[in-house]
Specification:
This protein is of the alpha/beta class and 423 residues long. The protein is built from nine helices and 18 strands. The longest helix is centred in the middle third of the chain and has 15 residues.
Length: 423
């Protein structure tokens, strides 16, 4: 099944905690703190896989979690870093933030892309030893890895996109100029998924052609299959608009031409600036007057016209020659640049954001980032408590308490730990 859209969740690994240990050996007096640092959490890495052509695997597998970093240990031993998790996707996949639609990466090149970064490992207590604080009994916890919901969109990489109404001969043309074998029949919507074919033009030259199915009037609003597959036209360097010049389906070729061009413009106005060749197919079913009349109409619009009979490859070679000639002059295929994260989002996700509520005289402080810090502090140790107080001051928790109206002697509660507020 061809699937070109999916939503998944990814979670990079958390950093390991530092260690709060002391050197204790038989002939070493006052060995001091020797807690090692925690390891870095694993990244979520996206990599192009040439063996994949759709996003169908992501219909079943929707959660990807990288390995956490290991905790530090004694003798200043650092914990192992978590292994990166590689997610393999077809070439041409766009990775977006599902919440904002921001483009994070365009997986069109071979280079792997880090989508979610693992958390840093925490410091061991050996980092906190000073001349006046020789036995620190606290450590820094590891930072959490990034947790994202992603939207994956596949936009096929093709040099040439074939557009036109159903049953005008797009699939037939692909089958006679390449090794692709699309389903072909004499009824509309035979082709239900985009079909790619490689057209060889010499020992060291070729181009990729794509049959974009299901375009009809209203396609940009979801009619037919066009809304689903119009996105695959956006990367194409050149469009080839195929029209049934004979009107064998009972439609007017000129009106067909206008409708498809209108749908392309409504979907993405940039497509109207894309170079286009117009092909009049099924010339064997049309008379000379019909062909000449349509050619005059097309050329008056500023387009080149090629009359063909795709089924028997009649006059197809001049069309391929012209396509090859134009592609050598056109710029490379569209690559989308990642968008930077909005500044307000960065502010909202600061790790020291807290919520303070006055609950019957007790000021309750909440902030997920505080939980691992509380775990790292020895509340029975004076140095640890002083370190915790400095953390509250440096990260703005004291400021948040004052804004909430706390006064000297009021009770403050942070995840079950209560103390009197002192200026």
């Amino acid at each position: 099944m061809f699937v070109d859209y999916a939503k998944i969740k990814v979670k990079a690994g958390d950093g390991g905690d530092g260690a709060a240990t002391f050197r204790r050996e038989k002939y070493v007096a006052s060995g001091g703190p020797d807690g090692g640092d925690g390891g870095r959490g694993g990244n979520i890495v996206f990599q192009v896989d040439e063996n994949q052509s759709t996003l169908s695997d992501f219909r079943r597998h929707k959660k990807f979690v990288a390995e956490n970093g290991k905790n530090g240990s004694g003798k200043r031993c650092s914990g192992h870093s978590g292994k990166d998790l590689t997610v393999r996707v077809p070439r041409g996949t766009l990775v977006k933030d599902a919440a904002t639609g921001r483009l994070i990466a365009d997986l069109s090149a071979d280079e792997p892309q880090v989508i979610a970064k693992g958390g840093r490992g925490g410091w061991g207590n050996s980092h906190f030893a000073t001349a006046t604080r020789q036995t620190p009994r606290f450590f820094k916890p590891g930072r959490p890895g990034e947790d994202l919901e992603l939207q994956l969109e596949l936009k096929l990489l093709a040099d040439v996109g074939l557009v036109g109404y159903p049953n005008v001969g797009k699939s037939t043309l692909v089958s006679v100029v390449s090794e692709a074998k699309p389903q072909i029949a004499d009824y509309s919507f035979t082709t239900l998924t985009p079909v790619l074919g490689v057209v060889r033009r010499g020992p060291d030259r070729s181009f990729v052609i794509a049959d974009i199915p299901g375009l009809i009037e209203g396609a940009n609003e979801g009619a037919g299959l066009g809304h689903q597959f119009l996105r695959h036209v956006e990367r194409c360097r050149l469009l080839v608009h195929i029209v049934d010049v004979s009107g064998s389906e009972g439609r007017d070729p000129k009106e067909d031409f206008r409708v498809i061009n209108s749908e392309l413009k409504k979907f993405n106005p940039e497509l109207t600036k894309r170079p286009m060749l117009v092909v009049g197919n099924k010339c064997d079913l049309a008379d000379e007057k019909q062909i000449h009349d349509f050619e005059t109409f097309v050329r008056s619009q500023g387009y080149e016209f090629f009359p063909i009979m795709a089924a028997i490859r009649y006059q197809v070679e001049p069309l391929l020659n012209r396509i090859d000639e134009l592609l050598q002059k056109l710029p490379p295929m569209v690559r989308y640049q990642p968008e930077p994260a909005p500044q307000h989002t960065l502010e909202e996700t600061k790790p020291n954001s807290v919520k303070v509520e006055n609950q019957n005289g007790t000021y309750v402080v909440e902030g997920q980032w505080l939980i691992p810090i509380l775990r790292s502090v020895d509340l029975d140790d004076a140095d640890s408590l002083r370190y915790f107080e400095r953390v509250l001051l440096r990260t703005g928790v004291n400021d948040a308490l004052r804004k909430a109206g706390v006064c000297e002697g009021d009770t403050v509660s942070i995840y079950g730990i209560e103390f009197e507020y002192r200026e």
